[in-house]
Amino acid sequence: MKKKIIILAAFVITFFTACTSTHMITFSNAELSDKEKDMIENNSNYSTASIVGGSAKLVKEERDKAIQEKIEARRNKLKAIDGLSISSYKDKNGKEQFKATAQSEILFKFDSYELNEEAQKMLSDLCNIITEIPNTKIKIIGHTDNIGEKQYNIILSKNRAAAVGNYLRTAGIETNNITEDGKGYSEPIADNTSEAGRAKNRRVEIFITNDEY
């Protein structure tokens, strides 16, 4: 009888030891670092949940850091392009995006929508930056001053936006990632009563967005 009790007790101890062994962990350790695996294998005081949670937090922090570095790199490269004025804004999801503005005088001759050589160089540099991050979306909006008929200015602004978009397509940006529109003189950013104000209003705005940030 005593022998049976000893055997039973030994079985119970063995059973509970096996159940509490670190080798019974059911989640995959594939995503854990060597240090975290070592903590588990050596019966560390850290719980499995805290180790996994800490690893997930570390992954998120590294991802956020990498995203911020991409944003900073894109901003610096855009600002280095002569003739472009760069600003940033938050989209509806709170992600930072960019707007590049070029005055029409830099891009086109008077009353024309044919890109000059300086404009082509500028847009080539812009294309190189844009294509560094896949699936970047480009929205191009043309604007004019208020000299001339309304409909004429709308058509001119649309043609100028299309000229910029077509050049970016030939430079390597996917057609489906580019949209264009023209607003004529309906969205001025300066007073049209002065030449300086009208010059500011004659512009092309290029919105550069990326959901992968």
From TrEMBL:
SUPFAM superfamilies tied to this protein: OmpA-like
Signal peptide: 1-20
GO cellular component, one term: cell outer membrane
Ranges of residues in domain OmpA-like: 96-212
Chief localisation class: membrane
Subcellular location: Cell outer membrane
Key words of the record: Cell outer membrane, Membrane, Signal
InterPro entries associated with the record: Bact_OuterMem_StrucFunc (IPR050330), OMP_bac (IPR006664), OmpA-like (IPR006665), OmpA-like_sf (IPR036737)
Protein name (Swiss-Prot/TrEMBL): OmpA-like domain-containing protein
Species per Swiss-Prot/TrEMBL record: Phocaeicola vulgatus
